[in-house]
Amino acid sequence: MKKILLLPALLICATVCAQTITPAELSQIQSSFVKDGPTAALQNILVQNKSIKALALNHSAEPVDNFFKYTTSVKGITDQLSSGRCWMFTSMNQLRPIAMKRYNVGSFDFSHNFSYFWDMFEKANLFLEDIIATADRSFDDREVVTYFKSPVSDGGVWNLFYNIGEKYGVVPAEIMPETEHSNNTSQMVSILNERLRAGGYELREMVAAKKKIADVRAEKVEILKDIYRILALCLGEPPTEFTWRYKDLNGNVQTVKSTPVEFYKTVIPDNYNPENFVMIMNDPTRPYYKVYEIENYRNSIEGINWYYLNLPNDVIKVAALKSIKADEPMYASCDVGKQSNTASGVGKLDVGTYDYESLMGVSLAMDKKARILTRQSGSSHAMLIVACDTDDNDVPVKWQFENSWGAASGDRGYLTFTDRWFDEYLFRIVINRKYLDKKSIDALAGEHIMLPCWDYMF
Question: Which of 28, 238, 315, 331 lies 20 to 30 Å (CA to CA) from residue 263?
Fold first, then answer.
């Protein structure tokens, strides 16, 4: 009898606990909006200006200059245009100076299009394998929903570049140039996802019909043929070998004949691997000095997952400054849209850049932990940390990003962010482990705590 009464009891509780807005409450809420002179003037301004951000620009904020005590060797600004490949551009921007020194040239870039082709192709295969592995679950299973929600995207993190580079190599930009669809990815990605969702559905139907796994995977190959065709039509076919001619700084014309994998091994330093370079994170929602791994966050079956060591910001800054002083820029990702003014010639990121609270007359206060848990803040963009400025005690006061939004964005393509912005909106850095302290290095040896594929740090 108690079990029979349980459901009605829950319904009664829900009815009692969930209340509509009463007329008295609505009257109280409405009367709180007092339309005095200043409020009326502010309303007139806001209803006629769509840019709240422009109106909230804080002209009383402390000035931030673009001069730095410590800088790394940077080699010009790139532009990812309308694509989500910031993680790829940032990874390559870190390696470009090494390639330029290796070949004695004044400018150089890798082919982002080549790496993008194989990244999307491998992500498609991973999606289809995930669908096969979860085919016995219902469509509303959270993991299945996560996979079908976004079969592939051009977003990612550092480990994805490493995975693709190790398997397929890299080539100079001239060998596989950008196309309209590598620079503007949304339409192609939409078509890829439509084909993958249809293919994923068919694979689930085959598993439900008790088809042999060999037949299921044969169908997967047929789907991948279509994916390859779409990519080849929009991006061009990636070369298996190439001849690259260039003129060095001495005026000599040089010729390199290679394969992408051989070129990768020639250009990329031997220590460029997860054994030496580690991702460190500042995530105050979880205990520090623990290693966390996002389940299935990679772009190839055999590739490494995204994992990171969670550290306090003060520890991260000490290591980051050591890296800058050693002329080693760092891959980093942040919530670039928060409190940032990337207007041409400005390039300022500071917690006081915009004052929405004074404009609206409401409090928007949340700490970093609350912003992460409520999804108000999260990593949205990768850039290269290339400089740091310190006070008389050598304590950081501001840092600099090399961005990949072209030279017209920010200060000639660079963005300056204050140390307090670092605290609030910087999330992760990929750094040579030799710059970490002993406590951090010891923590790297700890067991990985696996987080689900729908984790908020995804």
Answer: 331
**Cα 357 to Cα 363: distance, rounded to the nearest angstrom:** 6
Q: How many whole angstroms separate alpha carbon 375 and alpha carbon 360?
A: 22
Q: Residue 75: CB partners within 8 Å, gap ≥ 6?
A: 93, 96, 97, 100, 107, 108
Instruction: Identify the three-state secondary structure at position 315.
Output: helix
Specify the CATH number for the domain of residue 230: 3.90.70.10
Compute the distance between CA of residue 379 and CA of residue 332 in angstroms, rounded to an integer: 10
Collapsed DSSP state (helix, strand, coil) of residue 390: strand
pLDDT 10s digits, 349-367: 999 999 999 999 999 999 9
Q: Is 253 in contact with 246 (CB distance < 8 Å)? A: yes
Read off the pTM.
Answer: 0.92
Residue reference for tokens 């002209």: 59
Interhelix angle for 186-208 vs 142-149, to 10°? 140
* Among 207, 241, 267, residue at a domain's last position: 267
- Kindly list the catalytic residues: 86, 381, 403
* In a domain? residue 385: yes
CA distance 383 to 400: 10
34 located within any domain: no
Whole-angstrom Cα distance, residue 48 to residue 41?
A: 11
Helices 112-133/186-208 angle, 10° precision: 20
Number of structural domains the chain divides into: 2
* pLDDT tens by residue, 16-60: 578 999 999 999 999 999 999 999 999 999 999 999 999 999 988
Range of the domain at 206: 89-267
